Amino acid sequence: MARDGWITIRHGQPASVNYFWREGNLNVLDRLVQHAEHLSPDFITQLLEVRAALAPAFSRAAVARHPAKVVAALAGSEDLDDDPAAYAAFDWELQRTLALLSDNPVFLLMLNGCSTLYARAAHQYFARAENRTASRNFYHRLLNAAMACDPDRAATAVSEAMLESITLWQATVRTQPPEASRITGLQAEGGGHP
Fold this sequence. Notes:
single chain, 10 helices
């Protein structure tokens, strides 16, 4: 627990409990993600804000270094079944592929740490047709950028889509009944985001 930042141990003194938001590390994040049902509705929104900051960087790098592989990863996007599960699976694999193709393994490690929470929230998010349409439009813009070998255009498309997804997630949580929100451990109070 001390190694992960939950407590501080000092020789000859009692252990003290840390404020994990300040003292914790990625191991704490992993534990929080595993128990997201006990967290504030804002937790997923905060994770999405982090993704909005990171995803343009790893997407730019992926298109700069491996544009043909990015195009291949997006090839099936136009034939996706209009089904929440199909979108959730495709979207997760696309994010992982872009992180991998950035050639910076830390991006992928960070994404992998949120896989369980993503799976639960994505099904909720993609249940709304409006959200599937927004993602389909994003995949098309990103595909065009990758085909043009334009990493800056790709980063812009990703940034815009990530910011839009935060707004769409908040609308999703607000419009679903409380029992649906509990699937991801989120309540429809005050926002939240997949």
